[in-house]
Fold:
Amino acid sequence: MDGTIFDSSYKRGETITFPLNRVIKGWTEGVQLMNVGSKYKFTIPSELAYGEAGGGPIPPNADLIFTVELFAVETAEEAAKKEAAMRAEAEQASKAAKAEGEKFLADNKGKSGVHTTASGLQYKVLLEGTGKSPRATDRVSVHYEGTLIDGTKFDSSYDRGEPIDFGLNQVIPGWTEGVQLMKEGAKYKFFIPSDLAYGPQGSPGAIPPNATLIFTVELIRVN
Structure:
């Protein structure tokens, strides 16, 4: 209660949404006293906050002060309906991405210079190397750029200005298989089906579920 700020949605520049039964007791009780549009200041005893354990930046047995604005209320039933609708929408988008990826790979398969392995991985040699090839257990240094099939770039070591070093058995299956086809000094383009990439879960914030990926990879060194 010395005025130290330990958290603030104002500083983050966005509101927060949460179930009222999943926060500290002082919040659960206090916010129920509010109406939409109101702004309250709560002084919460430690036993209604984080108690003897504390939490993160909050010391044990700390009484807390919160200034709270209530912007909207959503019932459990409304939240469940919204969540179900979002799941259905996400599932539909996932199926569409899978179908788009399969069509892309089918069309790409017949293009000049494109090779397809037994797993379904496709690759094109942009520049052949003359050094050694890695094994699945080796570490490698590479430069790369990754895009979705619509050209959206989601990652690039070129943009960061330095290659990346990693164990070849610690990446997506399409990389583990594909980079083993290369020799040091080579530059390949890989077209990776979703089941050899991030699959139905995708990679939140960057890669949608069931996305087929395209990587341009330079194998600099086998370590």
In short: The two ends are 54 Å apart (CA to CA).
